[in-house]
Amino acid sequence: MRVPIVAANWKMHKTGAEAREYCRGFRALVPGDFPVELVIFPPFTALGAVREELEGTGIKWGAQNAHPEREGAFTGEVSLPMLREHGISYLIVGHSERRNIFGETDDFIARKLRAALDAGVSPILCVGEKLAERRAGRAREVVERQLAAALEGVRADEVGAIVIAYEPVWAIGTGVPARPEDAQEMAAFIRRWLADRFGGDAAAVRIQYGGSVKPDNAGAFLKLPDIDGALVGGASLDPDSFFAIAKAAVR
C-alpha cells in the first residue's frame, strides 16, 4: 500500500529563527509511529535551521527549487549538489508559480526532474490546468502534456521515486479548492496515464492534491481512492494547522 505523503510548501515565508520555532512546535505534535510521510519545504535560507531541528525525527525536508546544472555562471541559482549538503530528500518541480511567474518551460522542468533523480532526490512534480483551460474542456490535455514533457526519458524503474502533485492553478492560494470529485477524476486519469506509460512500476507513484487545502476540507480530499496526500501552501504555515491536515491522511 502506498504510504500517504503530506508536504508543507512555505514558499517565501519564515526566517531561520521562525523556521526553528515552527519545527520545535511541529515535532512535538508528531508521534514517532505516525503513518504518514511528512515533508517540509522551507526557503533556502532556513534549510540549515530546519535540518538541525528535524534530523533524526522521521520528518523530512526538501527544497522548493533548484537549477538543473551542477555548477556554472547562473547568478542567484542553487544546484542539487549544494542542496544535498543540507540533507534534502525532495525537490518541488514544475510548481505553477515557477511556470507562470518565472516562465519555466516544460523542457526546463524536465531537466530539473532529471537532475533531481540523478542526485538521488525525489521530485514532487506539480501539474495542473488554469481556469480558462478547465472551462474550455482542456484540463486533461494540459495535464497530459505536462506529464509527458516532464517524464520524457524517465525509466520505469525510476518512476516510483517521483510524486505527482495535481494542483489546479485556479485553486492555488485562492481559498477556493477544486471539488473532491474533480480531484479524484484527475488523479485517476493521471494514474491511468502513468500505468500506460510505465506499466506495473507506476503503481508505486503517489499522487497528491494541492490547492487551498485546509484542516476543514482536507478529509474530503485525502480519503479519495487515488489521492495519496497533499501539497499544502498557506495552511502549512501554522504547525497545528499542518498537523491537522496530516492527520486527515491517516488510513
Q: Tell how many strands the DSSP assignment holds.
A: 8
CATH topology: TIM Barrel
Assembly type of the chains comes to: single chain
How far is the first residue's CA from the last residue's CA?
10 Å
Number of helices: 10
- What is the overall pLDDT average? 97
Query: What is the CATH C level class, in words?
Result: Alpha Beta
Return the CATH architecture. Alpha-Beta Barrel
Briefly note the structural class of the backbone: alpha/beta
Note the run of SSEs as H and E.
Answer: EHEHEHEHHEHHEHEHEH
Shape: globular
How is the main sheet built? 8 strands, parallel, barrel
User: How many structural domains does the protein architecture include?
Assistant: 1
Low-confidence stretches: none
Strand order of the largest sheet: 1-2-3-4-5-6-7-8
Binned strand content: 5-15%
Features:
eight-stranded parallel beta barrel; alpha/beta; 10 helices; TIM Barrel; 251 residues; 14% strand
Short description:
The protein is α/β, with parallel strands linked by helices and 251 residues long. The chain contains ten helices and eight strands. It has an eight-stranded parallel β-barrel, surrounded by five helices.
